[in-house]
């Protein structure tokens, strides 16, 4: 099958177009014919080797972390899905590989695709949707009346997180350029800050939750906009020892992560707030909850550009440029996506 693979870790390198064997289907697996695959910053970070200590992949590795497609075969223990079902998923971190014509995934990681979405739109949702869900619903337990600050409101995570936080009853603040104010307001943002001309730390005070996705200076400022007892959830680091334990990392890796995050955790304790690092995980049940919100019109995906499969490297470069407003997708079967 056609695929795009990583042969060695290297910053700003290109993936290789390669013929790879069709994946084997385990007893609990579904084999999905890929119609479209989302492209994420995570893909570039994996390619650059940023996660090689905590995610020790064997190379060559088929890349890609988002998929929408059609089930073509199921394992003998699979009961929920059958051939012909339209599904979408963020595969488990150990079984990525959506930049290909087929992918096998455990049934627990898969959900039925929202009927309201095309395949390309469906492929844009799983990773960012699950990130927003696990941050705001599972970790922060956002309640009506709370104040939530979501950085980078036009990003893939931001566009979904704004809508989800608003659905949960929160007052939502976000950052973007002035040209995107109308866009983020249409998603539900109440307070919009121009990151080019304004400092969010001077505007936001006593927030209950911050979803952090930017750099270290923004993290330090974000800790200070929280009220005592507030929660900061970071998806951009620093990763901590708790994350190391969750992924079963070696003791020396957990120790390194503890040291890496020590300063941030100490600062959070001094301020009386909570700090969590989130590396989202595959979860078909949560994704099915997101499907219900999409089909009921509560959440809509925001798409920026769709590339043909042959231009997967160009799609990754576009995501890395930081210019995307919403999600970028490649269509593996363009006539059906």
UniProtKB/TrEMBL annotation:
GO terms for molecular function: oxidoreductase activity. InterPro entries: ADH-like_N, ER, GroES-like_sf, NAD(P)-bd_dom_sf, YIM1/Zinc_Alcohol_DH_Fams. Residues 12-330 form the Enoyl reductase (ER) domain. Pfam families: ADH_N (PF08240), ADH_zinc_N_2 (PF13602). PANTHER family: ALCOHOL DEHYDROGENASE RELATED, RETICULON-4-INTERACTING PROTEIN 1, MITOCHONDRIAL. This is NADPH:quinone oxidoreductase. It comes from Mycobacterium cookii. The lineage of its organism: Bacteria, Bacillati, Actinomycetota, Actinomycetes, Mycobacteriales.
